[in-house]
Amino acid sequence: MPTVVGVKLRYAPKVMFFDPAGTEPAPGDAVIVETERGVEMGQVVDVPCELDHAEVPAPLRPLMRVATEEDLAIAEEFSEREREALRVYRSLIEQYKLDMKPVDVEYLFGGDKIVFYFVAEERVDFRELVRELASRYKARIDMRQVGVRDEARMVGGIAHCGQMLCCVRFAGDFQPVSIRMAKEQDLPLNPLKISGLCGRLMCCLRYEYEAYKDFKQRAPKKGAKVETPLGDGKVSGFSTPRETVMVRLAEGGSIKVPLEAMECPGGGCPCTVSAEALDALKAQETESALTGHVPALTETRSEPDRGSQKRRGGGRRKPEGARTEGGEEKASAAAKEAAGGSGGSGRSRRRRKSRGGGSGAASGDGQRTQGASGQPEAGAKAGDGSSAGGASSGRRRRRRRSSGPKQGDNAGE
């Protein structure tokens, strides 16, 4: 049984090579291999293993050796040449006015072949460009057209999630991605949010597609009826990563139940949540709260709208003690004003003026007081002062406004 090693080349998916010398390189080691294009340098990505001849992918090419210090120095020199060749490549494209976009330049390890990558929407006649490059570098020139996804893999970058592009991090061929995968995961069908830097659908849409598809096949549909010990309800939402179902109760409120705690028979019958399952979930919730984990069951109840209570004249009432204390404060203030009488200080008159514009205060013996206008007004008696003052309060206010505040100040002083 041959020993097989998985090697990741520079711009190619993982390729299997057999190790005839039995060196067994470790993952991450640089190795020299022989490919269809020639001698190249790659990196080991799999642990060497033995496979039967029937399981070995054909044709297998040999792994020549593990890269030495000299090989690494040669690779570094080729890297410097590639950067210089890329600048020349761009200048020649502008000189010949070719409708193509240069992407990268790759020197094979032997140095006898150079690969120039480019992106173009239409067919390009680059024969003059190839002649110019061959005369400059005295090597075989390979012009290779790539797509936008390959361009993103070569150039690299940061995706929407803040991580390196998946096509750069993960070795392998590009897998097809469809818009159906985004719909299955309930993602917004906005091209700006589900497209990558290459302008195509993001590769990560394929990663969780199977999980969402399997969960939705087992879970009830949105709007389906659910019978619970708390009352009937309907499915209002899902949480696929946690495999929970949100059920909105008919009497108000909602509960979040794991899918495994629901019994969903076939034939269109409503799903049920047993009382034993709810008790077990509540016990698990209590234990999770003690240990600091996320509870398995959450229940919310709808609260009455406070704005509607205010519009109806409702709301919170003050405690009885607060009303009593407020009444005592008002009574004490009235007593102080009555004790001051008509000969009170200017400060008491200004206080009365700020509260009511200087209306006549009711005295215990029916004395007359002067209003803000300086004219005598009949003071209400102590027994019926409140009713008389309430009946004529509107007329006195209008009269005080017409008289003006300066006259009241002069009369009081």
Give an account of the 3D structure.
Helix content is 37%, strand content 20%. The chain contains 14 helices and 17 strands. Among the domains are: 65 residues, no CATH class; 67 residues, 2-Layer Sandwich (GMP Synthetase, Chain A, domain 3), CATH 3.30.300; 57 residues, no CATH class; 81 residues, no CATH class.
Indicate the mean pLDDT. 74
Sum up the overall morphology in one term. elongated
Biggest sheet, spatial arrangement of strands: 14-10-11-12-13-15
**Number of helical regions:** 14
Strand content: 15-25%
- Computed Rg: 44 Å
Q: In percent, how helical is the residue content?
A: 25-40%
* Number of E-state strands: 17
Structural category is alpha+beta
The end-to-end span amounts to: 119 Å
Poorly predicted parts? 300-332, 338-346, 356-391, 405-413
The main pleated sheet reads as: 6 strands, mixed
Kindly summarize this structure in a few lines:
This protein is of the alpha+beta class and 413 residues long. Helix content is 37%, strand content 20%. Among the domains are: 3-67, no CATH class; 80-146, GMP Synthetase, Chain A, domain 3, CATH 3.30.300; 153-209, no CATH class; 220-300, no CATH class.
